[in-house]
């Protein structure tokens, strides 16, 4: 099965922060998860480099705009690499191939008769790159709205209202979790849906409108098309193959663009809609949304990862944020939670098991399911149940529930060891069986945890003598031979206070 996962393409006007990281981590978690099922998965991310906001930032810094966006874009790429977040393509909206696709896309809307020329007189937030019908200040950025008055091309968004309502009503999985779907539906049902201004003359920093060089495209139409242009031309094989399985991971701040504008554009262009739009809440610091426009909220993700490791950072947010809700970042909780989950629970489990096998069966041993007692089967069944729980949770975007189930499964193996007390067993046959059960359970655990802590699971697999990338179908498969080797501590306990402020703060 082909799966096409996308993160938002991030504005190339500042450094990546923890908020950007969270959405990207969720997408990367699904990338790992789907690959376990042998799906053909492609994850794309990238940078959104046009528009007035970026132009203004570059001007204010006195840097040529193309050099400015290149540096910012590279910084995103470096951050994903530093955090060990994988992606298959990185799309930049200033690339020539993207610009060509954006123009071809525009042309499709024009051919459909959905674009007409008019004049925009109204309010705009440059930070959001969004139009507002009324109000004094932007509700997100708390900055005064600017009055814009210029000739513009409009998209006939109003004509799509009924079709959008009908589509979203009949596709329960299109926008998830459900409260976000309801939010979009209620906007469509209760608010006026005006036609959308989709070109600008007050900036030159954008993709020129086909046939009207005075105008550049509204940065949001340009940006949304990156989801297609990252695959290739609109009629390319890759678009045909991957696009219908597209899953967009986004934050709730950009729901309207993805849940209303984007499907309307796609309907107009005669292209299929993505399979799903998965919407996360906000990470906040002392109640304020983490945002580059609010320096008080900035926590540098790379600094955090240097303290707690890439997998520590990943597990903490995947497990702690109830998907879709906001979470206030609490560094004391971060440390306490990771020490409990990774150092005490998982780490002790693995090191204790490896030490026991090394002591009693230094060259390894063989065993079979024939010698299992009912209590032994209970643990192995528990691991299989966990696999089902995780499958259901991941299917319903319950990422935190799935991550918790993984950690609980490690605790269940610990409890089994505690109960069987292998250090007190004199009968070598029984000892062999108990250790075999733990090996079997730990092998399954490395599959369950693969999408949450992939590096740690890889190391644990080395310790268990397992090679290669796991498959979901490995869960519950009996292995006769048990051989272990010593590995470094999976998560060295974090002691004392940690400094999570970026350099210079
Ligand atoms: N460039 C647009 C997106 C275009 S997609 C076709 C944009 N960029 S952004 O740099 O502002 O990034 C927005 C996304 O980053 C959010 O939708 C969300 O996924 C993530 N986050 C940014 N701040 C966040 C938090 N404080 N908390 C959680 N996620 C947040 O909008």
Could you give a quick summary of the protein structure above?
The protein is an alpha/beta fold and 505 residues long.
Distinct small-molecule ligands in the complex = 5'-O-[(L-methionyl)-sulphamoyl]adenosine
Distance between the termini: 46 Å
Q: Strand sequence of the main sheet, in spatial order?
A: 3-2-1-12-13-7
Rg over alpha carbons:
26 Å
Helicity level = 40-55%
Secondary structure class reads alpha/beta
What is the general shape? elongated
Described by strand count, sense and barrel closure, the largest sheet is: 6 strands, parallel
Count of runs of 4 or more consecutive helical residues? 16
Q: Any low-confidence stretches, pLDDT <50, length ≥5?
A: none
Strand content: 15-25%
Features:
alpha/beta, 16 helices, binds 5'-O-[(L-methionyl)-sulphamoyl]adenosine, six-stranded parallel β-sheet, 505 residues, four-stranded antiparallel β-sheet
Q: How is the topology of this model organized?
A:
Elements lengths: L1 E10 L6 H19 L3 E9 L3 H10 L3 H18 L6 E4 L3 H16 L3 E11 L4 E3 L13 E10 L5 H10 L4 E2 L1 H13 L5 E2 L1 E2 L7 E2 L2 E6 L1 H11 L7 H6 L3 E6 L3 H15 L6 E5 L2 E3 L2 E2 L11 H8 L1 H11 L6 E2 L2 H30 L4 E2 L7 H22 L3 H22 L7 H21 L5 H10 L17 E2 L23
Parallel strand pairs: 1-2, 1-12, 2-3, 7-13, 12-13, 14-16
Antiparallel strand pairs: 4-5, 4-6, 6-8, 9-11, 10-11, 14-15, 17-18
Helix pairs in contact: 4-7, 5-6, 6-9, 10-11, 11-12, 11-14, 12-14, 12-15, 13-14, 13-15, 14-15, 15-16
Bound molecules: 5'-O-[(L-methionyl)-sulphamoyl]adenosine.
The site of 5'-O-[(L-methionyl)-sulphamoyl]adenosine (MSP) has 22 residues, from strand 1, helix 1, helix 7 and strand 12.
């Amino acid at each position: 099965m082909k799966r096409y996962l996308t993160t938002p393409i991030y504005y190339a006007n500042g450094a990546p922060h923890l908020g950007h990281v969270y959405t990207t981590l969720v997408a990367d978690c699904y990338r790992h998860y789907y690959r376990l099922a042998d799906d053909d998965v492609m994850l794309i991310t990238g940078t959104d480099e046009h528009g007035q906001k970026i132009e203004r930032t570059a001007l204010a810094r006195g840097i040529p705009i193309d050099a400015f966006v290149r540096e910012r874009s590279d910084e995103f790429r470096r951050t994903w690499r530093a955090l060990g977040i994988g992606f298959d393509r990185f799309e930049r909206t200033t690339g020539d191939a993207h610009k060509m696709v954006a123009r071809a896309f525009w042309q499709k809307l024009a051919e459909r008769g959905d674009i007409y020329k008019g004049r925009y007189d109204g309010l705009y937030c440059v930070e959001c790159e969004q139009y507002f019908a009324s109000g004094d200040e932007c509700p997100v950025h708390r900055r005064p709205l600017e009055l814009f008055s210029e000739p513009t091309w409009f998209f006939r968004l109003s004509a799509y209202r009924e079709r959008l309502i009908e589509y979203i009503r009949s596709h329960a999985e299109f926008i998830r979790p459900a409260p976000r779907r309801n939010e979009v539906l209620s906007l469509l049902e209760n608010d006026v849906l005006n036609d959308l201004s989709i070109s600008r003359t007050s900036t030159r920093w954008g993709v020129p409108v086909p046939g009207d060089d005075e105008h550049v495209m509204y940065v949001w139409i340009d940006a949304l098309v990156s989801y297609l242009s990252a695959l290739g031309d609109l009629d390319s094989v890759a678009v045909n193959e991957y696009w219908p399985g597209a899953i967009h991971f986004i934050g709730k701040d950009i729901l309207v663009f993805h849940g209303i504008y984007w499907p309307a554009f796609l309907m107009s262009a005669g292209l299929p809609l993505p399979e799903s739009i998965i919407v996360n809440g906000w990470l906040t610091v002392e109640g304020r949304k983490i945002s580059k426009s609010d320096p008080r909220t900035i926590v540098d993700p790379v600094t955090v990862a240097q303290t707690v490791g890439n997998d520590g950072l990943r597990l903490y947010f995947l497990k702690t944020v109830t998907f879709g809700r906001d979470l206030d970042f609490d560094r004391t909780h971060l440390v306490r939670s990771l020490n409990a989950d990774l150092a005490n629970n998982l780490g002790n489990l693995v090191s204790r098991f490896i030490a026991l096998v090394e002591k009693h069966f230094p060259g390894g041993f063989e065993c079979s399911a024939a010698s299992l007692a009912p209590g032994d089967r209970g643990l192995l069944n528990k691991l299989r149940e966990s696999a089902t729980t995780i499958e259901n949770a991941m299917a319903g975007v319950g990422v935190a529930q799935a991550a918790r189930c993984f950690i609980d499964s490690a605790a269940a193996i610990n409890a089994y060891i505690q109960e069987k007390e292998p250090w007190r067993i004199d009968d070598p046959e029984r000892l062999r069986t108990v250790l075999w059960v733990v090996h079997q359970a730990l092998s399954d655990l490395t599959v369950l945890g693969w999408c949450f802590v992939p590096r740690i699971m890889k190391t644990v697999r080395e310790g268990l003598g397992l090679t290669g990338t796991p498959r979901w179908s490995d869960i519950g498969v009996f292995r006769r031979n048990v051989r272990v080797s010593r590995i470094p501590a999976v998560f060295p306990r974090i002691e004392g206070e940690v400094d999570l402020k970026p350099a210079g703060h």
